[in-house]
Amino acid sequence: MAALNLLPQLNGPPPLTQTILPKTPPFDVPPLLSAYQIVIVAESDAVQRYGHCQGQPKAVKDATANNVLASRVVGFLFPALWNMRHSLGDTPVTRLATEVVSARGDTEIYDLGRKYIDHLICSFRTTTVPLRPPSNHPSRPSMDQLEDMLNDAIQDSATDHRSARTRALARDGYHCMVTNTVDANSFYKHEAIKKLQSDTGAAVRLVQTCHIFNESILQNIEPDDEYPQQARRQNAGGALGILKMFGLEDVVERLMTIIPGDTASASGVHDLFNILSLITDLHIAFDSLKLAFEPTADNEPNTYDVVFAYPQTAIGFFGLKNRITLTNFADTRKFKQAGGLLELPLPEPRLLALHAVCVRVAHMSGAAQALDDFDRDVEDTSVLARDGASANLLYMKLSPLVSTVA
């Protein structure tokens, strides 16, 4: 196997006592440079304040550290969005620059960074929601013919998690999209998949349905629901507002498409354009922002570089590839339903590009480590400290519920 695609390796979390944003960004566009310089100053000011508050209560130090982190998120968004222009276009980075220039002082830069943590990075990150076990409808019999399985998947018009898995597996040939591993549940149940595995010699492991844009943000949000559903709608609005600002209005429309008669989900979050098929370990790595699929620089259709945050997380995977080209398995078999070609869309490249941007920004800024630490703190903390030491934890817990995008 060729050398892994890796993010720049860090020796632990970036220090809070010194600035880390590159002084020279990878662009030479005056409006972007002016905006980026504002963020450079905001990070420097936050680092200085952090150095001066070491004798203060933990809540004060945490709040100041949060400002350092927020400024770095904004700063690293500039090169990440700039380098993904081949997939996302110029709109995201120019809109980011406009937001920075419009900010009134450091405080609004820090608020902007927190907005991007809450409503962009966390919209492509899932660690606190338990992975759903794969399931098949109990009434579905074992099938010996692959064509029958494909037809069964297409006839299932529901948009819940189970149906999304059925259709995604049909689209992806009952394999993990990266390792070519055959789905174990399908293998045990269907003779057709046993034959498929025999033909390819692939490993057999559990293959799971992995959402690119966090499914929990949009799932089961009804217009008449009371709080906390109301707060979840605000969070969804903030996330979708950023996508719209970045020029992805058509993606937002698909994510929010209402399916008549659908009782499982009020949105199109289960549309196959938002879904990957991955073995369990890769699913967890993708959800926790330790794995990305970056559209190639030459924009080859549906082709992605597989990028790991840490080389250790790539050890032991059978059939791991550094670059993948996604295809519609059912379509390549020339299988058609009565109404025409199969409607099994491949993952949306711009959603994967934004996920990859979030992976790079979270990794380089230190936000990934902070969010991982936050998850552990939430699991370990049952009662908030009376001295205010848990204030930052409480803020991070509540901020996605109360923040909105202008």
Mind explaining what this structure looks like?
The protein is of the alpha/beta class and 406 residues long. Helix content is 49%, strand content 8%. The strands form four sheets. Strands 1, 6, 7 and 8 form a four-stranded mixed sheet that branches. A two-stranded parallel ribbon has the order 2-3. The protein has a two-stranded antiparallel ribbon with strand order 4-5. It has helices at 30-52, 58-83, 85-88, 91-102, 106-119, 146-155, 161-171, 184-189, 191-200, 215-218, 229-245, 249-255, 280-287, 329-332, 349-365, 367-380, 391-402; strands at 5-6, 182-183, 204-205, 207-211, 275-279, 291-295, 303-308, 323-325, 336-337, 340-341. The chain is elongated. The chain has a domain at 5-127 and 353-402.
Q: Helical element count?
A: 17
Label the structural class. alpha/beta
Rg to the nearest angstrom?
Answer: 22 Å
Q: What are the segments in which pLDDT stays under 50 over at least 5 consecutive residues?
A: 133-139, 221-232, 262-266, 400-406
Q: What is the number of E strands?
A: 10
Average residue pLDDT: 82
* Largest sheet data: 4 strands, mixed
> Percent of residues in helical segments?
40-55%
What does the oligomeric state look like here? single chain
What's the shape? elongated
Give the distance, in angstroms, between the N- and C-terminal Cα atoms: 47 Å
Protein name: HNH nuclease domain-containing protein
InterPro entries: HNH_nuc
Organism: Mycena venus
